[in-house]
Design goal:
Blueprint (H helix, E strand, L loop, with lengths): L2 E10 L6 H11 L3 E10 L2 E11 L4 H10 L4 E11 L1
Antiparallel strand pairs: 1-3, 1-4, 2-3
């Protein structure tokens, strides 16, 4: 197995969530983050979209989604795209 590039979107619980703190928490949880952007969703809500290189072990992407959803202030984390690295 090798590594894969994963593009994810993390939705905060509300517009009041501090995105800078959330970015820092994501960087601690996922050390392979290459690029991180804030994208407007609507009604003042903004999502964090990032690309990361992770190990391609079985179920690793599902585990990543679940672990990011457990961060305080995160409503949900979803994988947008997975490509071979």
């Amino acid at each position: 197995m090798g590594s894969v590039a994963v593009i994810m979107r993390v939705m905060p619980e509300s517009p009041e969530v501090d995105l800078e703190q959330l970015k820092a928490a994501l960087k601690q949880k996922v050390p392979g983050i290459q690029d991180m952007q804030v994208e407007p969703i609507g009604f003042g809500l903004k999502a964090i979209k990032f690309a990361a290189i992770i190990n391609d072990a079985g179920g690793e992407t599902d585990a990543l989604e679940q672990s990011l959803s457990g961060i305080p202030g995160v409503e949900r984390a979803e994988i947008i795209e997975v490509t071979l690295n």
